[in-house]
Amino acid sequence: MSVETKKVNISVERAKTSKINQVDFDNLKFGSVYTDHMLVCDYKNGVWEAPKIMPYQQIMLDPSAKVFHYGQSIFEGMKAYKDDNGSIFLFRPLDNHKRLNISAKRLSIPELPEEYFMEGLTTLLELDSDFIPTKEGSSLYIRPFMFASGNGFHASPADEYKFIIACAPSGSYFSGKVKVLIEQTYSRSANGGVGFAKAGGNYAGQFYPTQLAIEKGYNQVIWTDDTEHEYIEEAGAMNIFIRINDTLITGPTSDRILDGITRKSILEIAKDNSIPTEVRKITVTEVVNAAKDGSLKEMFGAGTAAVISPISAFGYKDKDYDLPELENSYASKLKKLITDIQYNKSEDKYGWRFMVKS
Amino acid sequence: MSVETKKVNISVERAKTSKINQVDFDNLKFGSVYTDHMLVCDYKNGVWEAPKIMPYQQIMLDPSAKVFHYGQSIFEGMKAYKDDNGSIFLFRPLDNHKRLNISAKRLSIPELPEEYFMEGLTTLLELDSDFIPTKEGSSLYIRPFMFASGNGFHASPADEYKFIIACAPSGSYFSGKVKVLIEQTYSRSANGGVGFAKAGGNYAGQFYPTQLAIEKGYNQVIWTDDTEHEYIEEAGAMNIFIRINDTLITGPTSDRILDGITRKSILEIAKDNSIPTEVRKITVTEVVNAAKDGSLKEMFGAGTAAVISPISAFGYKDKDYDLPELENSYASKLKKLITDIQYNKSEDKYGWRFMVKS
Questions:
Q1: Predicted local confidence at residue B7, as pLDDT
Q2: Domain carrying residue A151
Q3: Which domain CATH number covers A212?
Q4: Which residues of chain A have pLDDT under 70?
Q5: Looking at the complex, does the CB of residue B152 fall below 8 Å from at least one CB of chain A?
Q6: Quick one: signal sequence residues (chains A, B) (predicted)?
Q7: Could you give the CA distance from residue A57 to residue A327 in angstroms, rounded to a whole number?
Q8: A342 and A89 in contact (C-beta within 8 Å)?
Q9: Do A203 and B70 touch (CB under 8 A)?
Q10: Contact A354, A4 (CB under 8 A)
Q11: Can you give the pLDDT at residue B332?
Q12: What is the pLDDT of residue A135?
């Protein structure tokens, strides 16, 4: 798949020396080392200025920049994939751009033109393509983000913004299977709130409850509705899938739940591979009962960073429920199907793969 | 009132030249010009380092600093007051420090020692005391804030933070009376969320619904619960007071509503001045019915920035309800009582006034 975009005049200032020799590609953590360059786009005087590529460098901001005070910040998560021939691909990048602008609108941040996003991203990736890991389980994690750089202590939208793309050669997000806690006290988002947006504030609010869960031996919280804590929502950095008998179920998206690109891709792939799927509200009671009677076969998280993360057990009201170890799990089957598309190892009948460089 | 604090070794680097001659003290906006100095305190390797005062200057951060991505940012709002003798006062500053740490805990930010806050603040104010406006309605707005300066794209708490205090000689927050819209679609916070914290993300989420309200001719949104939109919560930068007949009512604080220092001070002052008060849930139906039968006498917002902001009218479901113009309103009476304490014009039997410099 490719798209026609208006030609954008992107200025490029190359790094004088490369940091690539400092990267230990055999022992990559998630998102902690960065490539040589970054893309910066400034919003000033009511317009997004043309994107600039420059050496990865520190950002200077006034102490009154509104990002520090009022949380006007949004982001996206993407990955770049390299196949055996060295060709470079993205996965449904236009969906990331669309969602970035959905988040932007809800946070009163000016929307970014598609061609700035797409041309900026592909130009940056071509320049830093040597940083794309080829080792199984590693990838180049791409972080497009936007924040209020305009100044002032008045609680109102800023008049200046920055859009930046930075990239990090990364290992896997979770190491091994994930044990989750079904949250019964804290909440991630409100009806009519910003839960559907990739807004910075949605994440900071999860850290404390997640730390409490980690102290109890879990890796991650599964969020529930803020009224009854009875409906399964999402896992913060992942959407949640639940397999009861042979049916794969995930909750509907809403103004509280992120419309995950991995989530919707998995739903489509599952349907095409004869896996019965349901998109409907899932209650905690239903999951607990299914765990008790043995009909709960699998749970997994799905997101760009974590891809598909199988869940080994869940905790609910001081009791842990183990999930069975399956030989041919939906999680492993679906993970292979989606990553084969992403890494150009299989046909892409969906048109999801986007070639950056052949 | 004064407190004993441990002596802290604060390093001071003075500005070479002062910007004070550039400040137009007769035409101050809210929070848009800053004093000569700022206080910076860094959290590194598990400890808060000693505070440093330095010339007000830009902050340098890595593009991967978590404040840009995960909204780990909190703040406080305070004011410094100068009396006719040039003495300088704060109002209940220890309560701001306490609340800062309450916010910090909920956002997984390390708590700041009281002596760093208090000594840092008073040292900074003494240095920049010439910036404290003396004109009626103006004040020095003080913004203590803390954010995640540590790096990484993993959605987890940062390992480094910055605490900064910056000050802005400011005019009033609202010009004139305020027309509010009782929100029926969007929400500010969830049960079990971070609404009680002064977290950056709580503000960004309000901007879009507030912009929609501004386009309809209102100045501010009054937030309601996220389930039924039937309970009055707060106004984002202010708590809300409602006078029905002679009783002054405000909602109880909760995990959704900020525990405002102006709010609780007003409650206490009102009680001591024979104004009947109630702290209880207020329904929108009750307010609309009171507007219809004439028992709704006043509504006002209360907060550090806005002090007491009388509300002239509220909108609810496409209908506007005007509030009467009162000769001796509770709002004006209470505003005089609280500002007289703040500006050292009356006795302070509560011990709320805190002398910075005599």
A1: 75
A2: 11-172
A3: 3.20.10.10
A4: 1-6
A5: yes
A6: none
A7: 47
A8: yes
A9: yes
A10: no
A11: 96
A12: 87
- Alpha-carbon separation of residue B121 from B7, B114, B127, B282, B341 (angstroms): 13, 11, 10, 37, 20
B231 and B245 belong to one structural domain = yes
User: Is A211 at the interface with chain B, CB within 8 A?
Assistant: yes
| B210 falls within a domain | yes
From A63's Cα to the closest Cα of chain B, the distance in A is 6
**ipTM for the complex?**
0.96
Give the count of beta carbons closer than 10 Å to the beta carbon of residue B3.
10
- Asked if residue A119 and residue A203 are part of one domain, the reply reads no
| B252 found inside a domain | yes
Asked if the C-beta of B273 comes within 8 angstroms of chain A's C-beta atoms, the answer is no
Q: Which of A28, A29, A36, A70 to mutate to test the interface with B (most CBs of B within 10 A)?
A: A70
Same domain assignment for residues A136 and A275: no
CATH number at residue A149: 3.30.470.10
Same domain, B227 and B328: yes
Which of B78, B153, B186, B225 to probe the A interface (max A CBs under 10 A)? B153
Same domain, residue pair A219 and A151: no
- List Cβ neighbours of B349 (8 Å cut-off, separation of 6 or more): none
A160 and A188 together in one domain:
no
Low-confidence residues in chain B, pLDDT < 70: 1-6
B153: chain A residues, CB-CB within 8 Å: 30-32, 141, 143, 168, 170
Residue A74: CB atoms within 10 Å: 32
For the stretch B147-166, pLDDT in tens is: 999 999 999 999 999 999 99
The answer to whether residues B240 and B139 belong to one domain is no
B121 burial level (CB within 10 Å; 0-12, 13-18, 19+): buried
Q: Are residues A159 and A224 in the same domain?
A: no
The count of domains in chain B is 2
Of A286, A285, A280, the closest CA to residue A257 belongs to: A280
